[in-house]
């Protein structure tokens, strides 16, 4: 019998996992930026208290994936899909897809019409996942992140 990953809403017991799972990929490919430190060290204040949501993927009760919906500062978008990270030991098991689908459904349940995300072209598996979720590239949006070289949107039907 195979163990299925489970998606649960964030609570303080996952605070360290939320930070660690994101720092892992950010520091592997880029450098931590001020916006990262703010959101990863203060998820309640920066994300949840502003009407956002964080999902945690559990594999045998261990947090192995995270993703946030942050109320968007970009005009015309309801939320930004952000801070998605999956532990290297859990990659290739469909956790990213599962948590991504969960986040999109959560956004719909919150009445969102359009989602936004920022990424970098070096993160090819992530971009492939976003495309599978229905995101398409958009142009002409400025970013607070140095590492961001692609922006995408998803129009929710």
TrEMBL record:
Keywords: Transferase. The keyword Transferase applies. Residues 16-157 form the N-acetyltransferase domain. InterPro entries: Acyl_CoA_acyltransferase, GNAT_dom, NAT_camello-type. One of its GO terms (molecular function) is N-acetyltransferase activity. SUPFAM superfamilies: Acyl-CoA N-acyltransferases (Nat). This is GNAT family N-acetyltransferase. It comes from Flagellimonas alvinocaridis. The lineage of its organism: Bacteria, Pseudomonadati, Bacteroidota, Flavobacteriia, Flavobacteriales.
């Amino acid at each position: 019998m195979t163990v299925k990953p489970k998606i649960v809403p964030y609570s303080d017991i996952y605070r360290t996992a939320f930070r660690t799972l994101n720092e892992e990929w950010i520091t592997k490919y880029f450098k931590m930026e001020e916006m990262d430190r703010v959101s990863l060290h203060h998820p309640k204040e920066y994300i949840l208290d502003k009407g956002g949501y964080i999902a945690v993927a559990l594999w045998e009760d261990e947090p192995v994936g995270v993703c946030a919906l942050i109320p968007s500062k970009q005009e015309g978008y309801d939320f930004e899909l952000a801070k998605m990270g999956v532990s290297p030991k859990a990659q290739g098991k469909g956790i990213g897809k599962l948590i991504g689908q969960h986040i999109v459904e959560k956004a719909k349940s919150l009445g969102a019409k359009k989602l936004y995300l920022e990424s970098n072209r070096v993160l090819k598996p992530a971009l492939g996942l976003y495309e599978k979720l229905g995101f398409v590239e958009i142009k002409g949006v400025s970013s607070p992140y140095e590492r961001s070289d692609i922006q995408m949107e998803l129009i929710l039907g």
